[in-house]
Amino acid sequence: MKRTDRREFLKQTAISAGALAAIPGIIAASAKSADAQVETEILSEVFLKKNDVILFQGDSITDAGRDKKDQQPNDPWGFGPGYVFLAASRLLDHFAKKHLTIYNRGISGNKVFQLADRWAPDCLELNPKLLSILIGVNDYWHMHDGKYDGTIAVYENDYRALLKRTKAAMPDVKLAIGEPFAVLGCSAVDNTWFPAFNAYREVARKLAQEFDAILIPYQSVFDEASKQVDPTYWTADGVHPTVAGCHLMAAAWLKSVFGME
Questions:
Q1: 101 secondary structure, DSSP code
Q2: How far apart are CA 116 and CA 207, in angstroms?
Q3: Does 47 score more than 60 pLDDT?
Q4: How far is 210 from 206, CA to CA, in rounded Å?
Q5: pLDDT at 253
Q6: Residue 25 — very low, low, confident or very high, per pLDDT cuts 50/70/90?
């Protein structure tokens, strides 16, 4: 390795180590943000019983290129190399004696109505005790790019109907709702996204309160992280997380839902 290459490598390694070490502080700062507050109770360890099911649902951020031929739970290929893999790995370790069953059923490109179309086999039949949903960026992004004629009202109405259907079929399920996020300074997200995109975040927070769900404040998390290191370190296009961004999301999920550091 040339000396200049070695210096650059060491520089990048130092940035990576420093950024990842800062994640607990980033999560703590985002939780204090007034813009992110939704009053919900963090789940205690006794919430989960032996053999309970946890399901992650959403779009490509959750999908993360998982092997859709492998629908078995607790399988790394079925989780995909994203935040679900990292969060599930920690849960299966931390709650080892509970023998949890964890699924990832995110599908790239999905909007809320597409979740609804597959909700019976990909959610209700799995009967999760804890259901985590991250959806909304495509509802806005595809509309923004002229590929979808949905509106913020369609997003809210479809999302509320999906949650009502879910609670009617599984009254005891606990919901965790991920805040849709878009990060400026990256390849796909520019100023034309705002302020319109913020309405989708508002809907997610509103529904979290309405359905007594835990909110994972991803926008605030990425905003805080981008103060530490350039935003492209966390997400190249402003929507899909890098490896570091996946770590950030998993940490935010674990902290928000179970208070785990």
A1: E
A2: 16
A3: yes
A4: 6
A5: 98
A6: confident
**Cross-strand bridge partners of residue 134:** 58, 178
DSSP-derived 3-state class of residue 227: helix
Residue keyed to tokens 């990292």: 86
CA–CA separation, 53 and 73 (whole Å): 9
Mean pLDDT rounded to a whole number for the chain: 92
Residue 41 reports pLDDT greater than 50: yes
Q: At 195, is the pLDDT very low, low, confident or very high (cuts 50, 70, 90)?
A: very high
Structural contact between residues 180 and 136, judged by C-beta atoms closer than 8 angstroms: yes
Rounded Cα–Cα distance for residues 49 and 109 (Å): 33
Give the tokens for residue 54: 């946890």
Residue with tokens 């959750």: 62
Cβ burial of 125 (10 Å; 0-12, 13-18, 19+) is exposed
Q: Which two tokens stand for residue 145?
A: 């790019």
Are 78 and 66 within 8 A, CB to CB?
yes
Closest CA relative to residue 82, chosen from 66, 58, 70: 66
> What does the alpha-carbon distance between residue 238 and residue 61 come to, in Å, rounded to a whole number?
11
